[in-house]
Amino acid sequence: MPPSTEKTIAVLGAGAMGGSIARGLVASHTVDAAHVLACDPSQDRLDSLALLGIQTFASAQDMLAGSLDVLVVAVKPQVLPAVLEDVADKLEDRLVISIAAGVSLETLTELVPSARLVRALPNLPVQVLSGATALCLGDTATPQDGELAVALFSCLGSAHVMREDQLDAEGAVVSCGPAYVALFADLMVRAAVEHGMTAPAAREMVLSTICGVSRQLLGSGDHPRAYMERVTSPGGTTAAGLRAMEPILFDAIERGVDAALERTGQLADKGRA
C-alpha cells in the first residue's frame, strides 16, 4: 500500500489496542491522519488521538454516517455483541475487521450478516510498527478485502493470513506475547538487581539485549536454537544458565499458553451468549 493512501479507516474503540492501531497507521504514513477516524466513550482517549489530526467521535452512529473503507472493531469481546447490534444497520456491505479474541467468524456473521468480515489478532507493538497480526477472512470477504487487510497490518509490523482454527493459538502466544516478554524482562532485571547491579542500568541493558536479539533473529532468519548455540560455549556460564532455566521456562510457557487458551474459550462462550 502506498504511503498516504486515500482509504478511510475507522476504529471503533480507542483503548490500548484500537488506539495503537490508529496511531500506527498515522505514524507509518500508511493513512493520512485526516482519513483515520476513531470513536470511544473516553474523551481523554479521543483528545490524545485528535492531537495527531485523527478525526474523533463520541458516537459510533455519527462516525459511521460518513463514507469509509474499513471499520476496525476494537472493543472487548464481552461488549462486542451489544456494540455491533447498535450499529448493524450501518454495516451493510462494509469491510469490518474484528480484533476481539475468541469471537468466531460464525458469531460475527450472526451479529452483522450483511458485512464483509475479517478477524484479526494484533499485538500491542503495532503502535511502534513492530507488531504481529494474524488475519482470517470470512466467507463474504473478497480477495481485495484480504489484500487491504494484510497491507494495513503489514505496515504495523508482520501480518499473516491463516485458518481460523489457528487463531486461538496465535492469540495465546503472539497476541499475549508482549506481556510475556515484559514479564521475562522484569524478572531478568530483578535478578540483576539482587546480584548487585543498579536497577536503571539493569533495565536498560536487559531491554537493549532483548531488542538486539530480536533484530538479529529477524534479520538472519536463524532458528532460535541455532542462535543459542552460537552464543553458548561448551561448559561455560551461559550453558549452565540455560540448563537450569530451560525445563522451568518450558513448563511455565506451556501452562501460560494453556491458561490463555482456556480464557479465550470462556470469552467465546460469553460472546455467543
UniProtKB/TrEMBL annotation:
The keyword Repressor is annotated on this UniProt entry: no
Residues of the Pyrroline-5-carboxylate reductase catalytic N-terminal domain: 8-102
Amino acids binding NADP(+): 12-17, 74-77
HAMAP family recorded: P5C_reductase
GO cellular component: cytoplasm
Its EC number(s): 1.5.1.2
Pfam families: F420_oxidored, P5CR_dimer
Entry-linked InterPro entries: 6-PGluconate_DH-like_C_sf (IPR008927), NAD(P)-bd_dom_sf (IPR036291), P5C_Rdtase_cat_N (IPR028939), P5CR_dimer (IPR029036), Pyrroline-COOH_reductase (IPR000304)
Molecular function via GO: pyrroline-5-carboxylate reductase activity
This protein's UniProt keywords: Amino-acid biosynthesis, Cytoplasm, NADP, Oxidoreductase, Proline biosynthesis
GO biological process: L-proline biosynthetic process
Recorded coiled-coil stretches: none
Domain Pyrroline-5-carboxylate reductase dimerisation: start-end pairs: 164-266
Pathway annotation from the record: Amino-acid biosynthesis; L-proline biosynthesis; L-proline from L-glutamate 5-semialdehyde: step 1/1
Catalytic activity: L-proline + NAD(+) = (S)-1-pyrroline-5-carboxylate + NADH + 2 H(+); L-proline + NADP(+) = (S)-1-pyrroline-5-carboxylate + NADPH + 2 H(+)
Protein name according to UniProt: Pyrroline-5-carboxylate reductase
Transmembrane segments: none
Described purpose of this protein according to its UniProt entry: Catalyzes the reduction of 1-pyrroline-5-carboxylate (PCA) to L-proline.
Family from the record: Belongs to the pyrroline-5-carboxylate reductase family.
Signal sequence interval, chain numbering: none
Predominant location category: cytoplasm
Location(s), subcellular: Cytoplasm
PANTHER family (UniProt xref): PYRROLINE-5-CARBOXYLATE REDUCTASE, PYRROLINE-5-CARBOXYLATE REDUCTASE 3
